[in-house]
Amino acid sequence: MLVNIDTFPTLTSWLPIAADSDFPLQNLPFGIFSPSASASPRVGVALGDQVIDLSALLELGFMDEVYFKDPSVFYEQTLNDFIGLGQDTWRAVRLRLVELFRADNPTLRDNEAAKAAVLFDQNKVKMHLPVHIGDYTDFYSSIEHASNVGSMFRDPSNPLLPNWRHLPVAYHGRASSIVISGTPIRRPKGQTKPDNVEMPVFGPSQALDFELEMAFVVGKPTQMGQSVAVAEADAHVFGFLLFNDWSARDIQRWEYVPLGPFLAKNFASAVSPWIVTLDALAPFRVATPTQNPPVLPYLQFDGLYNFDIHLEVGIQPENGAETIVTRTNYKYMYWNYAQQLAHHTVNGCNINIGDLYASGTISGAEKGSNGCLLELTWGGKEPITLADGSQRKYLADGDTVAIRGYALKNNHRIGFGEVSNKLLPAAN
User: Fold this and answer.
1) Which residues have a Cβ under 8 Å from the Cβ of 333 and sit 6 or more positions away?
2) Which residue range(s) make up the domain with 33?
3) DSSP per residue over 5-28, as a string?
């Protein structure tokens, strides 16, 4: 029973899946989970409100149609080895899962013992960081965000630096402090320089912020000296997830000249647990905004390299209700992911499986579509009001920040779940 990928939008599953689920049969994102607190991590796939245990499917013989040189990849604590099997294998696994879980296939549907062995409630499993991240780069690719920041801190009449429209600006971040959704974040300490004092002071950040971003995971490595052309980028991308680049604005403002962010960023970033593949996102490709002036030849492209992905951020105070503080869309990005990868490697920089490339803060042009509190409150000058009546210039201890995203077209929805983390007070 072979499945044609072109028929995906019309397929349904025998597993009950809500119409607004992020994880229909057409999605099938990959992650790492433990079925219980005492169980070892292994590779899973999200479907509806369930997690499919790929190691159990393999043991029971349901993956025999997909040839694996090394079946142990499904028992690993990260996806790196599975990703290393290549794009043809990722696709073969997804197609086999569609085949097994489509509504008209009784093979697994009518096998109660097998279903009990391979399906686990998402609300009862423990999710882990999906990949080992050797390197992490954070871009600065939203023209709306860059213009707002430039207006606040430099020149409102000319907010962009001279290089911004010519290359995707980025910095190398700290991979070791990237954590999974659900991990508490401790308020960082550092040097700041308040306007009313002559000398810097040390203490907890008083301007802690979220940054609404998306990130892609490298799926195919390169050697030093090798570059990835824009047209080749898709062969090197495994998939996308949600990303929150936690930021201490007061520390950042004092330290960032001349080399950019350091302590203001390296204390924590957070990702959602499920990696959504490029194949799942294919129906939602859209054009990149017009780039003016024209970019250099190595950054030029043909085709659709942005995605129409709805994004939102909610802030929930301790013991309070959540307030959605911003809604925006990934399609607004001025520099697309293929250009980011091409620029990153044009000098011969090598990339590795599991490397993470974040988009930078995603903002729109409309009021309320900004991807961080720095913009939403215009540097703290215009506080926002939450549902419980409290106001925020920046985040308060006890706040939980949740980023969510989904693509929707003709009732066909592909979602990412969420990345949600609670802010704890600074350590003593």
Assistant:
1) 141, 142, 288, 289, 306, 359, 362
2) 5-128
3) GGGGGG--BSS---TT-S--TTT-
Same domain, 67 and 165: no
Q: Which of 101, 128, 155 is the last residue of a domain?
A: 128
Residue type, 129: L
Instruction: Give the closest residue to 30 by CA, choosing from 258, 272, 233.
Output: 272
**Contact between 421 and 185 (Cβ < 8 Å):** yes
Residue 340 CA from chain centroid, whole number: 15
Same domain, 107 and 204: no
Domain count, the chain: 2
Same-domain status, 312 and 225:
yes
pTM above 0.70, yes or no: yes
Q: Which of 128, 132, 145, 412 is catalytic?
A: 145
Nearest to 100 by CA among 15, 30, 29: 15
Residue 145 falls in the annotated catalytic set = yes
Q: What single-letter amino acid sits at 306?
A: N
* pLDDT tens figures, 277-333: 999 999 999 999 999 999 999 999 999 999 999 999 999 999 999 999 999 999 999
Q: How far is 314 from 244, CA to CA, in rounded Å?
A: 12
